[in-house]
Structure formats: C-alpha cells, structure tokens
Design goal:
- The chain has 7 helices and no strands.
- The protein starts with a helix and ends with a helix.
- The N terminus is likely disordered.
Length: about 150
C-alpha cells in the first residue's frame, strides 16, 4: 500500500472513529454527564477546599487508594481501574457507579462534597461509607478523581 493510500485510510479511520466516539472521545452509549443521585453534603463539608496540592506524590497516593489491594474490594472494584464506572462489580448496582472519566459528571461538584461522599457514602445509591481512610487519604482520592476527569 502506498503512502497516499495509507494516509487516506488513516483519515478514513480517524473520521469513522471520531463519529463512533463523538467529539468528546467517548462512546455515544455512555451516559455523560451522569444524573446525580446524592443530595448536597452538609454545609460544614460542602465548600471545604482540598488542603492538599495536586503533586505527583499526592496523585500517586490517591491512585494507590483508588486501586486498592487486588484481593479486596476497592474503589476500582465498582468504578473500574480507569474510573469509568465499569468495574467488575459495577453490573450489580442501580444506579451504576459514578464515571469519573466524564469531566461533565463531576464538574461543579466541590471537593468538599466529594470528600463527604467518600467518607460517608451516598444515600439512595450503593456507594458505602469509607471511614477506614484518613482525611489525608480521602483528599488524595479527591485529587485522583479530578485527575481521572481530565
């Protein structure tokens, strides 16, 4: 195949893939943004800013907590290793686990609200409370969630 033919084939595939995934690069069957099911966190948490900086160390720690021990249930068990809401346990839940890859899903959700959901769970969903994490670990998780949505 000549250079021109490969170039045209590449453009064709790029256009087809672009149509198949939409302008956002996400498959059209994805629910992005996802509807919200969790009410507003109490005021004492809602507007709390994340006290941690988005450093490589904090992001790596947040990813570590998110992925967890492969022998146990972790955030990734439900939300998927990529944070797309498609973890191995995700099919068991209604509503489905949150897709953090979709920036529109968590855009406008304050860090304090995310902290509260991780710490205390999300009523009316299957998101359990995670009190085993220290405050610093929860804030690192919040940083990781923000990183997934880029």
């Amino acid at each position: 195949m000549g250079i021109v033919s490969r170039f045209r084939r590449g453009i064709f595939l790029g256009v087809v893939l672009g149509i198949a995934t939409g302008a956002s690069g996400q498959a059209p069957d994805r629910d992005c943004p996802q509807p919200r099911f969790t009410g507003k966190a109490p005021d004492e948490y809602y507007n709390r800013p994340n006290p941690l900086q988005s450093t490589p160390e904090n992001l790596a720690a947040g990813e570590k907590w998110f992925l967890g021990d492969p022998r146990r249930v972790s955030c990734a068990s439900c939300h998927g290793q990529a944070g797309d809401g498609k973890g191995p346990l995700s099919g068991q839940f209604d509503p489905a686990p949150r897709d953090f890859v979709c920036a529109k899903t968590i855009r406008g959700v304050p860090d304090g609200h995310l902290f509260w959901i991780i710490r205390f769970g999300s009523p009316e969903t299957s998101m359990p409370p995670h009190r085993k994490f220290s405050d610093e670990q929860v804030w690192q998780l919040v940083l990781h969630l923000r990183h997934l949505a880029r």
